[in-house]
Write a structure and sequence with these properties.
One of its GO terms (cellular component) is membrane. Helix content is about 70%, strand content about 5%. By secondary structure, it is mainly α. The protein folds into two domains: about 240 residues, no CATH class; about 200 residues, Alpha Horseshoe (Serine Threonine Protein Phosphatase 5, Tetratricopeptide repeat).
């Protein structure tokens, strides 16, 4: 199931900007789509020398076609997956973003930003000084020239920074083609993306100042890459049928959850009996119709693919909405088993179902499942919320308050986190592990 959370947004570049950092946008957690993107990224990261266990792919709940990197995270809009008709298009996008990571572009871009700020500051000081001197001497032309020096210095610094960023984008494009060639994949999807961008800006392209943008114009990127991309022996290679099915299912799921009723039917009008179309139809029925009507639709899909964990996960979500908590426990348990415990998002859903099912045995099992999920996904706020509920129903108030403090902490609600941490500390012996964790939360201050 697509779970929406709020996180700090990042700019469309290799490094976040202050303006973007002050904005909060929703991200999406979904075990099925995260696993698909991880499979897309693994061979690319391997040949690029980027460690997979230190790099996270994050889904952003935005409908536009966009992707970017910040820190060790690659952010991909759900809209990009929906608009990409083949896996190869998203793989090309991931290859480009990995090019930024492997090239160390973020660190160097920060250095360029510092340099640009220094240039702007120095020229501003010199210009203001010249303007003041001209004003004091009564030389009006000198005063105006001083103002021109200040403005021109800032303009030059900005243009220099934009030029550097455009060069980084082209370098990441070339790196992407290299990674795709080395993994035996086509760069055609990457070119398709640039064609899409060119089409989207075609009406305003003549009004864009090429010296004041951070990315090269799409036609420049196409011109730079098309020849080398077509020289690859893999250029006409297509994605496997199995991978295409997984991609289409991800698109159908996003369409149902994000784009609303009817979106799946519109997108799969030419293939209404495909697995993806039926999957999306079942999800749409669950979300906008009757959950109980969706159960047999999911069951038919499970009968075709009984070892698919994500179908069992979806059945669990449907049964939760249908108020069959124990049925949901059974479905989620099967999904966790089929993923060998490597899908903490599903394990969190199982913990939630166990809490709703109630009873001491279920509550204690919920705590165990949620604690394991947290070790794999330490910042999952939903896990802490369900854990707090389980502890609370068992009368373990200290643990419940600590879990609530953790949930608020990882959601960025630091005042609330400190308040619950203070309450939790009073319930534990000083120096106990729980007391120490609560104390850490209470003492935390946001870095400036």
């Amino acid at each position: 199931m697509l779970h929406c959370l709020l996180v700090v947004a990042f700019a469309l570049s290799a490094v976040a900007t202050a303006a973007a950092q002050s904005t909060r946008v929703p991200i999406v957690r979904d075990a099925e789509i995260e696993a698909l993107l991880a499979d897309y990224a693994e061979p690319i990261m391997r040949v690029a020398g980027v460690k997979r266990n230190r790099t996270e792919i994050v889904l952003v709940n935005q409908r536009s076609f966009n992707a970017f990197v910040s820190g060790r995270k690659i952010f991909i809009n759900v809209g990009a997956i929906v608009q990409a008709e083949t896996p190869n298009e998203i793989i090309g996008v991931i290859a480009h973003e990995v090019g930024h990571l492997a090239g160390g572009h973020q660190d160097r871009l920060r250095q360029q930003i510092d340099r640009a700020q220094t240039i702007a500051a120095v020229t501003t000081v010199l210009g203001v000084g010249a303007a003041i001197a001209g004003g004091v001497s009564g030389n009006r032309q000198a005063a105006q020239a001083g103002g021109g020096i200040a403005a021109g210095g800032v303009e030059a610094a900005q243009r220099g920074l934009m030029s550097y960023r455009r060069s980084e984008e082209l370098a990441a494009d070339r790196a992407a083609v290299d990674y795709l060639n080395r993994t035996g994949q086509s760069a055609k999807g990457l070119l398709t993306t640039f064609v899409r961008f060119q089409r989207d800006i075609s009406l305003i392209a003549d009004r864009i100042n090429p010296y004041k943008i951070s990315h090269p114009l799409p036609r420049e990127r196409l011109s730079a890459l098309e020849t080398i991309a077509r020289q690859s022996p893999h250029f006409d290679k297509t994605d496997s049928a199995a991978l295409q099915r997984r991609h289409d299912r991800a698109r159908a799921k996003i369409l149902a959850y994000v784009f609303g009723p009817g979106a799946v039917d519109d997108a799969f009008r030419d293939a209404p009996n495909s697995q993806a179309a039926r999957y999306g139809k079942a999800i749409s029925t669950f979300l906008y119709g009757s959950p109980r009507d969706a159960v047999p639709m999911i069951d038919r899909l499970i009968a075709e693919s009984p070892s698919d964990p994500y179908l069992h996960e979806m059945k669990g979500e449907v049964l939760l909405r249908a108020q069959d908590a124990q049925g949901a426990v059974n479905a989620f348990s099967r999904a966790v088993q089929l993923t060998n415990g490597n899908a903490p998002t599903i394990q969190v859903a199982l913990g939630h179902a166990l809490v709703l099912a109630g009873g001491e045995a279920n509550l204690r099992r919920a705590i165990g499942e949620l604690e394991v999920a947290i070790t794999l996904d330490t910042a999952n706020t939903r896990a802490y919320q369900h854990l707090a509920m389980a502890y609370g129903r068992l009368g373990a108030d200290g643990e419940a308050e600590l879990a609530t403090a953790e949930a608020n902490f990882h959601a960025g609600r630091y005042d609330e986190a400190r308040r619950f941490a203070a309450r939790a500390k009073r319930r534990f012996e000083r120096g106990a592990p729980q007391w120490l964790r609560a104390d850490d939360i209470q003492r935390f201050r946001v870095p400036r």
